[in-house]
Each structure stands twice: as C-alpha cells, then as structure tokens.
C-alpha cells in the first residue's frame, strides 16, 4: 500500500462481516476517518472511527452514512447463494442505493466487493483476466454481475472512480484443493483494498482478489495500476490439501466457480463451452 492518507474519509459498509472486521483492523489509523456501517452489532468506535447502523436497503440510511465521505468500500451483502428474495434487498437494491447515494453526495470513489462467482461458469482449463465477460454460476453471482454493471454505469455516466474486486476465497488459510488457486489471505485483502482506496485516479477497473498463489489462474493487469503486490501463497498448504482432501465434484472441477456451480445443477456440462 501507499503511505497513509490522513485526509481521506472512508466508509465501509458491511463492516461487521469477516472481511469488514479484517479491514477495520488492518486499515486502522491510515485515514482521517473510518466510518463503519452495518445492521449487525459492532464494537464501539475507537480512535479515528465512527460506528453507524445502516441497512443498505434503506436509501435514507445510506445517504446519512455516505455524507462527507471520500471513498466507499461496499461490502454489505448476503455473502453466499440464497433464495432470490433474500438476495434482492441487500445485493440488488442496496448496491444501487450505495452508488446513487454516492453520486448525490459527490463521493469520488467506490470500491465494490464483487466475486469470482460473477464469472464462475467459465471453464477452468482457461485462465481468466479482467476482460472476460460475466458468466455467473449462481443467483448470488448474478447479483455481483449487477453490481459490476452499476459500477460501470456510474463511472461512465457520472465520472465516478470505481473498482470492482472479484474476490476469491477469503480465509485464514486455504481449506480445499480449489482454494490453492483462489485463496486470498487476510493480509492480502487489506493490501488489495488499501491500494484500491489510495491509488492515483482511475476510471473503472476490475481486479481479482487473490493472493500470490503458485496455482492461480486469474490475472489482473489493473493490479499494476494500483500497486497491488500480494505477499501470501496458498502453496504452503498444498501437500496437506492434496493428500487429505477428497477430489472435487466432477462438475465443480470443470469450472472456475467450483462447488457453487454444483448447487441446484441439472444442466449438461458438455454444452457449456
């Protein structure tokens, strides 16, 4: 990351979640203000922090949360596959509300927590970069494609600076064979988001949120633009995972989205190019 910017006022939505709490700790004391918004309980505010209650499905609450902010890190969402009526309020309405409230308030930069599941039905035999078209593997993935599209609209139409982070497998350590490719460590997550917050001006960029994994199959040229240099590698756990974990599901192993592709799957893998 660059040097701390003690003039920036940064809002994190979904700050009570696993990634949110990691960023709260890792970005402490870097900015003039770290405003932490969630509907779930949070620890009391520390130095340089504000803790606010905000349901991103409530536009008025979002407008209050973004007031006076320079950069938004938008994490708030249902974080996994679910029924559409569960995903709709936070992942669709909430994401729109954040971008629109940011526009109204003159926020210059929004960092959107997208997901690898926005492109999960691309075949794993071919590495991906930021130019690959969306190919969601789930309803959840569809909501992340929506968020990327909204971000692109607000960048093009309203001159907002937007970074969509296609986050891989955020864990303390990789848990299965697929995560040898897709893992992002807590430390690298802090580095990635910090770079996206602090980088010089950009327009719209897509970045894969992964560590420096030996087996990585996702590549992002924009990482150089913002100075993201991951430091961790899932390969440290490769021997244990390859020997102890069962082989992947025969559908999951074919696609970048892995086990999420299998949920409710009744298609024909051979017809998926």
UniProtKB/TrEMBL annotation:
CDD domains: SDR_e. Gene3D superfamilies: NAD(P)-binding Rossmann-like Domain. Residues 10-168 form the NAD-dependent epimerase/dehydratase domain. InterPro entries: Epimerase_deHydtase (IPR001509), NAD(P)-bd_dom_sf (IPR036291). It comes from the Bacteria. GO terms for molecular function: oxidoreductase activity. The keyword NAD applies. Keywords: NAD, Oxidoreductase. Belongs to the NAD(P)-dependent epimerase/dehydratase family. PANTHER family: 4-EPIMERASE, PUTATIVE (AFU_ORTHOLOGUE AFUA_7G00360)-RELATED, NUCLEOSIDE-DIPHOSPHATE-SUGAR EPIMERASE. This is Uronate dehydrogenase. It comes from Stella humosa.
């Amino acid at each position: 990351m660059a040097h701390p910017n003690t003039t920036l006022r940064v809002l994190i939505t979904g700050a009570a979640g696993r990634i949110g709490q990691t960023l709260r700790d890792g970005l402490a004391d870097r900015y003039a203000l770290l405003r932490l918004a969630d509907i779930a309980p949070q620890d009391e505010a520390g130095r340089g922090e504000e803790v606010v209650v905000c349901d991103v499905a409530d536009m008025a609450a979002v407008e209050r949360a973004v007031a006076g902010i320079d950069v938004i890190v938008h994490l708030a969402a249902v974080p996994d596959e679910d029924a559409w009526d569960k995903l709709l309020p936070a992942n669709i309405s909430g994401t729109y509300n954040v971008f629109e409230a940011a526009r109204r308030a003159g926020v210059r930069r929004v960092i959107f927590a997208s997901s690898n599941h926005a492109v999960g039905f691309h075949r794993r035999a071919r590495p991906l970069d930021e130019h690959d078209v969306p190919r969601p593997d789930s309803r959840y993935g569809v909501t992340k494609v929506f968020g990327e599209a909204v971000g692109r609209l607000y960048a093009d139409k309203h001159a907002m600076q937007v970074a969509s982070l296609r986050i891989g497998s955020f864990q303390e350590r990789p848990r299965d064979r697929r995560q040898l490719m897709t893992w992002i460590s807590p430390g690298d997550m802090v580095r990635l988001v910090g770079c996206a917050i602090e980088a010089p001006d950009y327009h719209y960029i897509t970045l894969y949120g992964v560590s420096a994994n030996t087996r990585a199959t996702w590549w992002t040229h924009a990482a150089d633009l913002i100075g993201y240099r991951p430091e961790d590698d899932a390969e440290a756990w490769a021997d244990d995972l390859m020997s102890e974990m069962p082989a992947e599901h025969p559908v999951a192993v074919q696609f970048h989205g892995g086990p999420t592709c299998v949920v409710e799957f009744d298609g024909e893998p051979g017809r998926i190019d």
